[in-house]
Design a protein that fits this description.
The complex is a heterotrimer of chains A (about 325), B (about 260) and C (about 725). Chain A is about 25% helix and about 30% strand. In chain A, strand 7 and strand 8 form a beta hairpin. In chain B, helix 2 links the parallel strand 4 and strand 5. Chain B has one domain: Rossmann fold, CATH 3.40.50.620. Chain C is an alpha/beta fold and about 725 residues long. Chain C has 3 domains: about 350 residues, Alpha-Beta Barrel (TIM Barrel); about 160 residues, 3-Layer(aba) Sandwich (Rossmann fold), CATH 3.40.50; about 140 residues, 3-Layer(bba) Sandwich (FAD/NAD(P)-binding domain), CATH 3.50.50. In chain C, helix 1 packs parallel to helix 2, helix 5 packs parallel to helix 6 and helix 12 runs parallel beside helix 14. The longest helix of chain C has 21 residues. Classes of the chains: A alpha/beta (about 325), B alpha/beta (about 260), C alpha/beta (about 725). The interface between B and C is medium-sized, with 16 and 24 residues.
Chain lengths: ~325, ~260, ~725
């Protein structure tokens, strides 16, 4: 087994940014391994992405035709298994995304491969080594893959810088994988999230509230504070799940990704899915009573304090 | 109809904790155990589906891999309305990775011949987000991950799959199937004291690997990774911590905000 | 768990005179209703704080002679050997835990009416007291001055004998030494009046004499109001205030600073409704900041936050953190900081209920957050220790998570009941606190004489603390958004059922004055509201609002404040002689009155409503009902009677056979559901039931110790009552 294969991702005709991040992560590992890097792209429209995926460090772009209009878990699993059969890679890298995680573990299980998800570092020193969070990112674990000739690894989006699209000269090659009768799910339609009139991705200053506000009845107080400070109010997922905030204001993997000048987080612990939505804000200020809250790992400024007392004091300034 | 729900008793770290001498795991004295939050939603989804079915003989079975602490989680499931529970444990499973766990779960679940298997999207301690889909690989089941709505019509399931950015995909698949369930899909019920007491009278099986027809070798072969070490994350520059009384902290925050927002 | 190093500074010892204070947590003198005549309550209340880590605890104001008698308010006394024996109990208990004992030697002058002793108080000038009863003092000549100063000396000697480590000459709150210092009281033309030095002479001489008598053995402290808040006619911190500190710095080992006087001492014991944490800083902080002293300084300001405490010491504002109310709310605050258990700190909410009982004159203290305050001795309750219930194998269902329900469930949890389910109909726990804590604002503007209505937000700490504790208890489950019917309760599976379902406001104007509804009163109409409807914003409120306040506490006036602050034209009507009578006891009244007056609220006292019609309320003069008046209004808010929501309880109680067959062995009702009451009393009610859930008849409170002398007892010894077997403290 040799070589690294990156599986790129697209959705509704657009290449997803994580694909380019994977390439830069993979090319570093491929160099350490002294092996070639290929990028695979799957779908009925996969050919149109080959140019962009021919980035620096990529030897080849592999296209796998799949029927239908978009992602289907079984088709993608068959495609990746077909790639593994055809190319015999040591390492297959995908984004830790909803599509990829919708099938990659099944492939690893069926084929007895090495497997690790949501990794933040990948390296090769006497074998594959990765790092991922433990206990919700409060600790970091280092993993190895003893006895595995091929491993599948999903990589956390937003960690690695994206490679420059099309900066290399790799050629595309099609890989045939039989897919008749493979798909067991049927796509019906897509639905956009309700926008509710506010677009938090356009805000320059977000005041974001989390579980720490404790009570639905406290939301108006933070609405007022946000207004006073000139900020737009946003929140983490649990408040939306509980119906305290509309989904249009949700920051996170299943909500919006935001990149404001200032992200002021009150009472948000920093679950990975939330961080995915805001970690690239210019300045992140976090207030949380838990000194171990993972959000302090990405924040630029932090305070271990009672958010209500801080809110009261901020109120006095506004 | 039989619905199997795979659940996990998860560990939360105490504010102060220590690692074991081998540096590969946290000292259990500093762990607090509870049913995984996602599993309360998947259990509730299973109970609602069962309750909506006509006729008798439908059952919800909760299964878990875990030692003593896991018993509490299963009793909680039984108290909330699951009909049966099964726990599997072997000392060799202590450090199992997600694929090894899924391999053992697959063996338990195969015995049940379920029509539907529900898992949580992820657990709050390991956060692999992979167990359910890996399980579907071992079981050979049609599957959808990250489901926020389920409709059952005979042997066809229609689900809403939650994508990044709040986009939703609607798709259908046939039973038998496996779904991983996202938080917020429903409002989990709680158990009355009577139900909690009566939970102890419901069937709760404890199985060994041998009784599942598995040996250590099979499980070890299925494992996908091994922990070399765990450590505190490097903070790097980390957050600059603001100290002082709330008034001072707030003043600093305002200063920072003003600075960043102008120019 | 360990102490966070950033709090180390709070645990550094500091020298005060010949004594070492082991840390910076200092319980300043405050009243509790015990004095010298309830020595058990005195010793065990103060002792509880020492056990909790406070480095020093003081008595309340301690009369040095029968001429200083504040009856019916309870002061301590050190008149004779009997008092020495009684107060020694407090000193012994404090010393057991390594705390210093302080005594605040007090001579009230005209502010102390001497209703028990029937003596005549003396004063620097014969001006009647500005505090309440306008008592006149006798003019003091040199002999009088010598006599009173000797009283301080004799009292100090007795204090040393009792075991006190810190002896105060108390001049804050406008008591004797301050009356000489301040030209507001002192119109003398001899060497004790006129110039600053003359006016300071009495105080300085008293300090010197006390120091000579006991200064080698005891630390000499003085409590000084650095600013009387009356402007140039009295002491101002920038003038005589700082000058006095410099003038007496050499004869004092410890300064204890406050502001204001006794007539409006709510400026010092500031309620959270009007004052924020560390509110005295602008005044008391000036002394060290201006380098006017070389001695250690302790000061107050309802300081509850450990980070604020650190900031106060680091910034040089004070050397020692003084607290009265925060120490009542949590006697174990220092220990919790030491152990890194900040989450467990029970923060004072600044409701001043503790103060109100002393103000009323007689009743023992209470505390909304800490139901054991005042009960340490007479009921044997410890705020942190709970012995397991004898019937702990039973499971409990508590219905309703308001103050009573939360407290009851929490204590039952701490008493290790096998399972406690707290079930709440609404989405969040907290009950009435959730909406009440939104009141107390007006228009955000400051009033004369300081004090901006900042709202009752700190009252939500009642919920915050209990939420955290309930979460931590493994044997307690809290379920919200679940309204239980009688059938649900019967089938729930609990052996003990406790109903805590609260109360609601009368919709028909039913009130305590006339014992009848008011014709035309009907809050189902969209222009008539109950107070909670004002907060919930469910109904539109018109320009002209009449608020009928028949409740004597904060509800009616808070509604008036809110609506006036929002621009409505508000008329406030009460049948009593004053609005919100109880708020005089909580010291909130003066600022409340200033706020309402500034907002232009029209206040009509001794006025009751005869009937209500659309657009008009017909009112009459209580003393002369023929004298009527019509108020033209758009909206009416009826703050009259509250009615228990006890239907569930009655339904359950009615079917005894069914209760038995379902295995329900005990059915109880607590809080407003039992009888509407103040929040402090609801918390107490829930607490008491939980403490006594394993007594033979839990619904009937167990007897408590009454410290009294029995007639015919020839030994004249103090009666030590029988503490119930449920006590969590051991009496020495």
């Amino acid at each position: 087994m040799s070589g690294v294969v990156v599986v790129a991702e697209s959705r509704r005709g657009e290449l997803r940014e994580v694909s380019l991040e994977l390439i830069s992560a993979a090319s570093a590992v491929a160099q350490e391994m002294g092996e070639p890097l290929s990028v695979a792209v799957i779908g009925s429209d996969c050919a149109k992405f080959s140019g962009a995926l021919a980035a620096d460090g990529v030897s080849e772009v592999l296209t796998v035709q799949a029927p239908g209009d978009g992602f289907e878990a079984d088709l993608w699993a068959a495609a990746v298994e077909g790639l593994i059969d055809a190319e015999s890679p040591s390492l297959v890298m995908l984004g830790h995304t909803i599509d990829s995680m919708g099938f990659a573990p099944a492939v690893a299980a069926r084929r007895g491969l090495g497997f690790a998800s949501d990794v933040v570092a990948v390296g090769w020193s006497d074998g594959l080594r990765v790092r991922r969070g433990a206990y919700g990112d409060k600790l970091i674990a280092e993993l190895e893959f003893p006895g595995k000739t091929c491993s599948i690894v999903t990589v956390r989006p937003g960690i690695f810088p994206p490679a420059t699209a099309g900066a290399g000269s790799a050629q595309a090659r099609s890989v045939q994988v039989p897919m008749e009768g493979v798909a067991r799910t049927a796509h019906v339609s897509y639905e956009e999230a309700a926008s509710g009139g506010v677009d938090i991705t356009k805000a320059e200053f977000l005041l974001s509230i989390g579980r720490g506000i404790e009570d639905k009845d406290n939301v108006p107080r933070f609405e007022e504070l946000a207004a006073k400070l000139g900020a737009t109010l946003s929140s983490s997922r649990p408040l939306v799940d509980a119906g305290w905030m509309p989904s249009a204001r949700q920051v996170g993997q299943s909500g919006k990704t935001v990149k404001p000048r200032v992200y002021l987080a009150l009472g948000i612990s920093g679950a990975v899915q939330h961080l995915a939505g805001m970690r690239n804000a210019d300045t992140i200020i976090a207030v949380n009573r838990d000194p171990e809250a993972p959000i302090f790992n990405v924040a630029h400024y932090g305070a271990v304090a009672d958010l209500f007392e801080i809110a009261d004091e901020l109120d006095a300034f506004a | 109809m039989r619905i199997v729900v795979a659940v996990k008793q998860v560990a939360a770290l105490d504010e102060e904790f220590e690692l074991l001498v081998d540096g590969r795991s946290v000292d259990p004295d500093y762990l607090e155990w509870d049913l995984n939050e996602w599993d309360t939603f998947s259990l509730e989804a299973a109970l609602q589906l069962r309750d909506a079915l006509d006729g008798d003989g439908h059952e919800v079975v909760a299964v878990t891999i875990g030692e003593e602490e896991a018993q509490e989680g299963l009793l909680a499931c039984l108290a909330k309305g699951a009909d049966r529970a099964v726990r599997v444990w072997d000392e060799s499973l202590r450090d199992s990775d997600v694929l090894a766990v899924a391999r053992v779960l697959a063996a338990v679940i195969e015995r049940e011949s379920p029509d539907l298997v529900l898992c949580g999207v992820q657990s709050s301690d390991a956060v692999n987000g992979a167990t359910g889909v890996a399980l579907s690989g071992f079981l050979g089941l049609a599957h959808v991950a990250v489901v926020k709505h389920i409709e059952l019509d005979g042997t066809t399931v229609t689900v809403q799959r939650e994508l990044e950015g709040g986009l939703v995909e609607i798709l259908t698949l046939p039973l038998p199937a496996l779904l991983t369930i996202q938080t917020g899909i429903n409002e989990p019920r709680y158990a009355t004291l009577r139900a909690i007491k009566q939970a102890r009278e419901k069937p709760l099986e404890s199985l060994s690997l041998g009784e599942l027809g598995l040996d250590h070798g099979a499980v070890a072969a299925a494992a996908g990774s091994r922990v070399v070490s765990i450590a505190h994350p490097e903070r790097g520059e980390g957050a600059q911590m603001l100290e002082g009384a709330p008034a001072e902290v707030a003043a600093r925050i305002v200063e920072i905000v003003r600075d960043r927002m102008t120019g | 768990m360990a102490r966070d190093p950033k709090y180390d500074i709070l645990f550094e010892p500091i020298q005060i005179g010949p004594k070492t204070l082991k840390n910076r947590f200092y319980q300043v003198p405050h009243c509790i209703g015990a004095g010298s005549e309830k020595p058990g309550m005195q010793a065990y209340h103060r002792g509880m704080k020492a056990e909790g880590g406070w480095g020093a605890c003081c008595t309340e104001y301690c009369s040095i002679h029968p001429e200083s008698d504040d009856t019916s308010r309870v002061s301590a006394r050190i008149w004779d050997d009997g008092d020495v024996q009684n107060l020694a109990a407090m000193c012994d208990r404090l010393h057991e835990f390594g705390a210093l004992a302080g005594i605040e030697l007090w001579y009230g002058g005209p502010h102390a009416p001497c209703m028990e002793s029937r003596a005549t108080p003396r004063g620097p000038s014969q001006i009647a007291s500005d505090f309440e009863l306008n008592i006149f003092p006798r003019n003091m000549d040199q002999d009088d001055i010598d006599t009173v100063q000797q009283m301080y000396v004799d009292a100090a000697i007795r204090a040393r004998e009792a075991g006190f480590d810190i002896v105060y000459v108390y001049g804050a709150h406008a008591y004797m030494p301050f009356q000489f210092l301040s030209p507001f009281y002192n119109r003398r033309s001899d060497k004790y009046g006129g110039s600053f030095e003359n006016r300071a002479r009495f105080w300085r001489e008293s300090l010197i004499k006390v120091r000579e008598a006991v200064g080698d053995d005891c630390a000499i402290a003085s409590r000084f109001a650095v600013d009387h808040l009356l402007g140039p006619i009295s002491i101002q911190v920038g003038e005589d205030g700082k000058r006095f500190v410099e003038h007496c710095d050499d004869v004092v080992d410890l300064w204890d600073f406050t502001v204001g006087d006794i007539a409006e001492w709510g400026q010092n014991a500031g309620p959270s409704r009007f004052f924020e944490e560390n509110h005295e800083k602008p005044y008391t902080g000036q002394i060290k900041a201006g380098n006017h002293t070389n001695k250690p300084v302790v000061g107050v300001g309802r300081i509850t936050n450990p980070d604020t405490m650190v900031a106060i010491i680091r910034s040089g504002q004070f050397d020692i953190i003084g607290a009265a109310r925060p120490s009542i709310s949590d006697p174990f605050l220092p220990q919790k900081i030491e152990e890194g258990r900040l989450d467990d700190i029970r923060e004072c909410i600044g409701c001043n209920q503790c103060i109100s009982r002393w103000e009323i004159g007689g009743p023992p203290m209470v505390c909304t957050q800490n139901a054991t305050a005042g009960e340490e001795y007479r009921r044997g309750w410890h705020p942190e220790k709970f012995h397991p219930a004898a019937n702990s194998e039973k499971s409990v269902l508590v219905i309703g998570a308001g103050p009573a329900g939360m407290e009851c469930a929490m204590i039952l949890g701490k008493r290790e009941m096998s399972a406690v389910h707290l079930v709440e109909a609404h989405k969040q726990i907290g009950g009435c606190v959730n909406w009440i804590s939104q009141l107390g604002h007006s228009d955000g503007k400051e009033n004369i004489f300081r004090g901006t209505a900042r709202g009752l937000g700190e009252w939500s700490r009642i919920v915050n603390y209990r939420q955290i504790q309930l979460d931590k208890l493994r044997n307690v489950e809290v379920h919200t958004n679940s309204r239980l019917s009688a059938e649900d309760v019967l089938g729930y599976g609990a052996e003990i059922v406790i109903v805590a379902t609260g109360c609601h406001y009368a919709t028909d104007g039913m009130n305590a004055a006339t014992h009848a509804p008011i014709p035309g009163a009907d809050t189902s109409l969209d222009w008539q509201l109950t107070p909670d409807e004002v907060v919930s914003g469910a109904k539109q409120i018109g320009k002209r609002v009449l608020v009928l306040e028949n409740e004597a506490y904060f509800m009616g006036v808070s509604v008036a404040q809110k609506l006036a602050g929002e621009g409505h034209d508000v008329t406030l009507v009460t049948q009593a002689g004053d609005i919100a009578g109880y708020m005089h006891y909580t010291l909130e009244a003066p600022m409340l009155h200033r706020d309402l007056e500034r907002l232009g609220v029209h206040i009509h006292t001794y006025t009751m409503l005869d009937s209500i019609e659309p657009g008009v309320c017909h009112a009459y003069d209580v003393w002369n009902p023929a004298e009527t008046h019509d108020f033209e209004v758009d909206t009416v808010v009826l703050c009259t009677a509250r009615i228990s929501d006890d239907e569930l309880y009655r339904e359950l109680k009615a079917d005894k056979e069914r209760l038995a067959s379902e295995g329900i062995e005990g059915l109880y009702i607590i809080g407003d559901a039992s009888a509407p009451r103040m929040i402090v009393d609801s918390v107490f009610d829930g607490h008491r039931l939980a403490r006594e859930i394993d007594s033979p008849t839990p619904e009937m409170p167990l007897p408590f110790i009454r410290e009294r002398r029995l007639w015919g007892d020839s030994s004249n010894a103090t009666y030590l009552g029988q503490l119930s077997s449920t006590a969590d403290i051991s009496l020495v």
